[in-house]
Request: fold
Amino acid sequence: MTTHTTKMLILGSGPAGLSAAIYGARAGMAPIVVQGIQPGGQLTTTTDVENYPGFRDVIQGPWLMEEMQAQAEHVGTRLMWDTIVEVDLTSRPFRLIGDGGDVYEGDTLVIATGAQAKWLGLDSEDALKGKGVSACATCDGFFYRGKKVAVIGGGNTAVEEALYLTNHSPDVVLIHRRDSFRAEKILQERLFAHKGVTVLWNKEVAEFLDGGGTTGLVGLDLRDTVTGEMSRIDVEGGFVAIGHHPATELFRGHVALDDDHYIAVEPGSTRTSVPGVFACGDVMDKVYRQAVTAAGTGCMAALDAERFLAAAEFDHLAVAAE
Ligand code: NDP
Reply:
């Protein structure tokens, strides 16, 4: 068992955590990043990335994360392979314990543990991920331009994704298991006014249909949730938009969460309910959820942490001088 100490402890190694690390290292805080169970985060399970600024050609998600990791290490970040199982945020330095018993102490803590998209759980869905099935229209919608696509869900995300896809697709079908949406009224009004979207009420996906070979998704088998009747539609893109799970289980009872279990932050900052603890990326953002916005809030977290330490140091000196 070893104790690792740092001015800036970062949990999570997606674009948010690594951007916080790059800024934190360059500010002299010698950060430690504990990578967690999915080093590199959600982008490591993505293939083509076309919307991260700075690359004129399509790049691969795992490659982008390797580059970010190398950049973070290059400027002085220590990356640790560990999974935190226990946190104590009652006093500083904050104390976190890894599953092998190692202790991590940070004068500040940046939570960048991300979120996972919820899936329907069908084998055919799993088999066609990246081959027509996606959980992010903003990321992948462009690849289906000119094609008929479907969105599954009835919340804000589903309605926003359906509207977003009308930019690329002439024919968007929104499939919902009930006969009313839970999305905000204004979004619903926008959706109903849009001629490019057809809503199929009371339908659930029974199967994602594989065209075989390299074709990918070709359609959906749907079950009517009221009558049980089966039907089939042809689509080349299927976007599952039934919500996300923010990875906040570890922090329940330690840091304030919002009603959807995301870490609550002061508007316009990354400050959480615990002074010295900051949150960035998808673990605190349920609206934008992009690699570039995660990186942006990661930068904010490092700046907030640096300012926090500078203020704490100033208070300490002031008390010592009294
Ligand atoms: P929500 O939990 O709000 O909605 C999930 C939707 O998926 C529901 O309509 C639900 O159906 C449906 N669903 C869930 N599980 C299944 C399943 N197994 N099969 C079929 N359908 C299913 O998730 P969102 O991602 O839409 O939103 C999460 C939070 O983020 C909300 O608070 C939302 O307001 C917020 N948000 C805000 C945005 C903004 O401000 N612009 C943008 C996006 C999200 P049912 O209705 O029947 O339960």
